[in-house]
Amino acid sequence: xxxxxxxxLQARLAxxxxxxxxxQRALTHRSFGAEHNERLEFLGDAVLxxxxxxxxxxxxxxxxxxxxxxxxxxxxxxxSLHRAALALGLPEVLRMSExxxxxxxxxxxxxxxxxxxxxxxxxxxxxxxxxxxxxxxQLFGELIASTDAESWAKDAxxxxxxxxxxxxxxxxxxxxxxxxxxxxAQTFEVECAAVALELAETGEGRSRRSAEQAAxxxxxxxxxxxxxxxxxxxx
Length: 235
Prior knowledge:
- There is one protein chain.
- Strand 2 (187-194) and strand 3 form a beta hairpin.
- The protein has helices at residues 4-13, 20-26, 38-59, 65-75, 78-88, 98-102, 109-127, 129-145, 156-166, 208-226, and strands at residues 173-180, 187-194, 199-205.
- The chain is mainly alpha-helical.
- Helix 2 (20-26) packs antiparallel against helix 7 and helix 3 (38-59) crosses helix 4.
- The mean pLDDT is 89.
- The chain has 10 helices and 3 strands; from the N terminus they run H-H-H-H-H-H-H-H-H-E-E-E-H.
């Protein structure tokens, strides 16, 4: 008989799995054993992007590809997936090693975000695209319906890449410079470099993604300042 917590989760998902093993695997962190959720996460990421893209295509009929891509990037990211995981109560049902659990793994945003993607992938394998798309609509539909494309400003990484490409320069390069703190509360320091210009800046964040955004923002500000008529890039 299925665990009562998993039955409650399926009620929140509004979907009942025919193959309970897929649901269980979607909730299994790699620290627990070989049958973990990373392959489902890979599949779920693709399904999630397709389903969100469809919702955005339907919602923003007057927006161009760039606008739609930016909105999708804001939706399909760790922060929003983490919020969805908390709404679904995933910390209560994740399976992980005792050490990972003691270290706060069940509350770690990256682990929870990955589990949401794995759930989408598991739903796709169990029932096909429509149930998976329904789940994505449940998680993101209200947010998409209540926003407008103009309210989603370009993120720093996107704006920096476009700034460089407009000048026919290579895209920026990112590398982790350092990590500090315990596994469940790490701080990442990332370098963002415009190699062709021999310029680089660093940024910090609680995840690699947020650190990359911080570094990109600092480098973009430096480049914009230097690109003024009296700046060194114009001299």
